[in-house]
Amino acid sequence: MTPRRNRAVATTDRQRTLALAAEVAPTRSPRPGLLRLLIRRKASAVGLAICLLTVVVAVVAPVLAPYDPIKIAPTVILKAPSAAHWFGTDELGRDVLTRIIFGARVSIAVGAIAVTIALCCGIVFGMISGYYGGWSGAIIMRTMDALAAFPAILLALAILSALGPGIRNAMIAIGVVYVPAFSRVVRGSVLSVKQNEYVEAARASGATTAAIMRKAIFPNCASPLLVHASLGFANAIIVEAALAFLGLGAQPPTASWGAMLSDGRQFLNQNIWYSISAGAAIFITVLGLNLLGDGLRDILDPRLRST
């Protein structure tokens, strides 16, 4: 057999081994009936409905909102709830309901981008530290431990003090804060499967490290990452609201639930709905995400699955 033919046969064998590994690997990726299983559980169905409603409100905010969110109306300052203004008006005469609706856009955008940053960095760091180990894995995980040692809000404040206030910098700061948590989830999944037979077979056949990670290892990280992302989304919204409350998140006149909560506390005697509505928006959204995350965890974790 010629050397060229030997190489061709070896390449074909590696491809078959990787394909077999992808088929045999006991992945914990989401099942086809995931949506149906979520709906069957009352708590997760409520959480899913809240999340979908929040996303829809954020997307169609310009159509749904009855007023301009930044237009000042001096004649209706701090008005009580009425037919014209369901949640009343703020200290500049702006409709509170309108700003709540537009504030959903900020919270959803910050949560989505921050979680994406944390997810992408966490996958890279977790894969490297879990698969290779050694000094590189030790350096990565000790760095992650150092970041995780700080409370989320304090670390975000430290990052924003260096980058400056603003919605874009808040997204980056929140994303960096949650990188250690995602890295640990990925690393734990990698450590639990990298010594399995199908991974060893792919490695023995000469498959590249990138192919092994992509086809044999990463699918086992999908389910825990999905659950952690839903819970991380809720935490990101809370941290964004806290930063906006302190004046370091979205800057005026952008509508932000945290900023509205901060501004409204000064006028509780004139219009208590100003603060209550912003706090209720944060509470309901975070509750929905937590219910959805709990439902995903129950469905995707075989130890907790009841159906």
The value of Rg in angstroms is 24 Å
Mean pLDDT: 83
Largest sheet: number of strands, sense, barrel closure = none
Order of helices and strands: HHHHHHHHHHHHHH
State the distance separating the first and last CA atoms.
55 Å
Strand content: under 5%
Features:
307 residues, mainly alpha, 0% strand, disordered N terminus
What would your notes on this structure say?
This protein is mainly α and 307 residues long. The chain is built from 14 helices and no strands. The protein is elongated, with a radius of gyration of 24 Å. The N terminus is likely disordered.
Describe the structure in brief:
This protein is an all-alpha fold and 307 residues long. 71% of the residues lie in helices and 0% in strands.
Question: Which helices and strands occur, and which strands form pairs?
Answer:
Elements: H1 3-24, H2 34-40, H3 42-59, H4 61-64, H5 96-131, H6 134-148, H7 152-163, H8 167-177, H9 179-193, H10 197-204, H11 209-217, H12 222-245, H13 257-264, H14 273-300
Helix pairs in contact: 1-10, 1-11, 3-5, 3-14, 5-6, 5-8, 5-9, 5-12, 5-14, 6-9, 7-8, 8-12, 9-12, 10-11, 12-13, 12-14, 13-14
